[in-house]
């Protein structure tokens, strides 16, 4: 049986993405995504927060979209897989880097282009999951009937 390697994150981009073009002409976007969790300390009752930084890499069309719309502070939903690569630093020492290879991305919040003027948010395709989520948000839950869900 094959294993599962899937990452789902919602977070904010730490700095403008680093855009490159590979030798075959395809675009690559490298960016860091911050996710935070907060909790109340049991002993002091004080609110605590921890931020994790994730290295993300996107290729082809997703990289093009990131290059056009994503900036420092952009809120993103991403899905991808973990991949660790080996490389040598300038002094010849082998290093390892674990990255998230992005295969799905949705922009959350305001979308801006390179010139930073607000743009219309791209339309997401309406699939069964989106339809069900929209229905759940619009419904108060009291009159929910399974027959209304399209799957």
From TrEMBL:
Q: Where is this region: Disordered?
A: 113-151
Establish whether keyword Magnesium is in the entry: no
Q: Does the keyword Chaperone apply?
A: no
One GO cellular component term: nucleoid
- UniProt KW keywords: DNA-binding
GO BP term, pick one: DNA replication
The record's listing under InterPro entries reads: NA-bd_OB-fold, Primosome_PriB/ssb, ssDNA-bd
Example GO molecular function: single-stranded DNA binding
Residue ranges, compositional bias (Acidic residues) = 140-151
Q: Which SUPFAM superfamilies match?
A: Nucleic acid-binding proteins
Cross-referenced Pfam families: SSB (PF00436)
NCBIfam families this protein is in? ssb (TIGR00621)
Oligomeric state and interaction partners are given as: Homotetramer.
**Which protein, by its recorded name, is this?**
Single-stranded DNA-binding protein
Originating species = Dichelobacter nodosus (strain VCS1703A)
Taxon lineage:
Bacteria, Pseudomonadati, Pseudomonadota, Gammaproteobacteria, Cardiobacteriales
Gene (UniProt): ssb-2
